[in-house]
Amino acid sequence: MTFAPPRTAVLALGTFAVGTSGYVVAGLLPALTGELAVSETAAAQLVTAFAIAYAVGSPLFAAVTGRWERRTLLVAALVVTAIGNALAALAPGYVTLLLARVVTAIGAAVFTPAASAVAAELTSPERRGRAVALVFGGLTVATILGVPLGSVLSQSVGYQAVFALVAAFSLLGAFAVRMVLPAVPAPPPVRLAERFTVAKDPRVLAMLGATVLGCLAAFSVYTFISPVLSATAGIHGTTVSLLLFVYGAGGALGNVLGGRATDRWGARGPLLIVFGGITVVLAMLPLVATTVAGAAVVLFLWGLATWSVNPPIQHRLIELSKQNAGLVLSLNASAIYLGVGLSGLVGGAVLSGGGPLLLPEIAAVLTALGAAVVVAGWRSRVKQPAMAE
């Protein structure tokens, strides 16, 4: 079946809404610490709450909703995301805001893997990398527009108004999906326990491990980018928001290039090149980002490399488990947010113990380890059952 661009667009619109829901706290960090009177580390735990709920909820709710028609499922997921953001806008304090983030994460946990699986189903194998990249392009646009705009708006109208706007956009996404996407039958039912059997393949497990390490590295720095840039170049306020736009622009280009490179050369080469590139950029960040211009260059390259990772990893997972594409993508979504969730804890500990300049160096070590996991995964072999004599 030929993949129709309008369908891709509405799926990307949905991932933009859930991506902004997940990532916007990085842009709101100064407003949250000021308005809630909490530390940067405590505010970052709003990322952790969202991410851990997502990681746990993705396979759980994928099993619960396994028989749902896909369009209905996608619309419902975006409505739940909207409700969670609305609750965050109305939350009177830190604890209730944490709970609202959990509700938001449930909707996002259902939407993202389902959208990826629908995109894969509605396109031919030779264009699957680009199709998945386009859907995940919504996440990169969230970093280009959603997070920086949230940062700018929070400085004038407060973080509650930003969450309210994200809620409204989630509802818009739900409406667009309902109007444009055709009905898509549910895949064959799979029990919750069976959803984890695909991870017994060491090659799948390696890709999931690389996803966790990559996201842990990226968000350990991204979540705390305000204190990092303050330490390297004395950058604050609106300038940080503008640099987040630059990072997001690099991410958008990287997402497209990652999909095209995967379709042309397969997943292995692009993955190793990208992990190597991220390692170098992060290691050099404290040395290069000492001026606004230097920070702009390094953030653009960092975004370019970081957002090139998703297409080849997802392509490889689908390649390894074609009959269970939705399952492995659901597990990969959990791996993404497990890494994001751990980043709040690891990044907060490094920030408190070693200061912001140590964050990029620790992240570089993690991405180097991710590259080693990719290599080990490709060398793994699945044991074949012995032939009966």
UniProtKB/TrEMBL annotation:
Keywords on record: Cell membrane, Membrane, Transmembrane, Transmembrane helix
Pfam families hit by this protein: MFS_1 (PF07690)
Entry superkingdom: Bacteria
Domain Major facilitator superfamily (MFS) profile: 7-379
Transmembrane segments: 42-61, 73-92, 98-119, 131-153, 159-184, 204-225, 237-257, 269-289, 295-313, 325-351, 357-378
Alphabetized InterPro entries for the sequence: MFS, MFS_dom, MFS_Efflux_Transporters, MFS_trans_sf
Membrane topology type: Multi-pass membrane protein
Cell location: Cell membrane
A GO-annotated cellular component: plasma membrane
Alphabetical list of PROSITE patterns matching this protein: MFS (PS50850)
MF GO annotations: transmembrane transporter activity
CDD domains: MFS_NepI_like
Protein name: Conserved putative membrane protein
Lineage: Bacteria, Bacillati, Actinomycetota, Actinomycetes, Pseudonocardiales
